Amino acid sequence: MRHIRLLATTLVFGFAMSAADIASAMETNSPAPPQQPQTQPPSQGHKAHTKKPKPKPSQNGALDKFYAGYHTAYAQIYDKKDYAGGIATLRALGYDGNPDVATLIGYASRKLGRYDDAKYWYEKALAADPNHALTWSYYGAWQAEQGNLLKAKDDLEKVRVICGNTDCPEYKKLKGVIDGAATY
Fold first, then answer.
1. 61-119 pLDDT, tens per residue?
2. Count of C-beta atoms within a 10 Å radius of residue 16
3. Contact at 8 Å (CB) between 119 and 87?
4. β-pair partners for 38
5. Which H or E element spans position 51?
6. Long-range contact pairs involving 70-74 (C-beta distance under 8 Å, separation at least 24)
7. What mean pLDDT, rounded, does the chain reach?
8. Which of 64, 95, 136, 143 could tie 34 with a disulfide, CB 3.0–4.6 Å?
9. How far apart are the first and last CA of the chain?
């Protein structure tokens, strides 16, 4: 599904990507290519949490810059727990409307205890991609943290439908949060 979205985005928006570039993006769970810069300030899903290798260079400098910035922010947030720095790096990319970028900003905001900001970013990501499993999983964790387990369970069901099973990491992690066995 992700590779279809990546290919469609490439065709629709005319990104100069070769088959190797597309394959590289799919192999690394990199975010979908950005559509267009959006820098609206808020009122303030990648998929699994795996360390991502750097994507192979492409013919498109803007795309390379986007991926490099995204991977820097990813490392700041998940590896270094530098949530504020990761948010700043992502915002500097200028692609706030990209669902992977918005999801990661939402996650970092939630980890900083900025729950209103996190909600804003999760909803922004879902507006861009209503089938973004990681966003639904994080949003469900946000719901659980807010004490709304019924809504978190609704989000868990959305993740199950998107993944097509209960084996995907997004489902398992949210299920652990709902069951009280994990934090996410």
1. 889 999 999 999 999 999 999 999 999 999 999 999 999 999 999 999 999 999 999 99
2. 11
3. no
4. 95
5. none
6. 70/30, 70/31, 70/100, 70/101, 70/104, 71/30, 73/104, 74/46, 74/104
7. 80
8. 95
9. 24
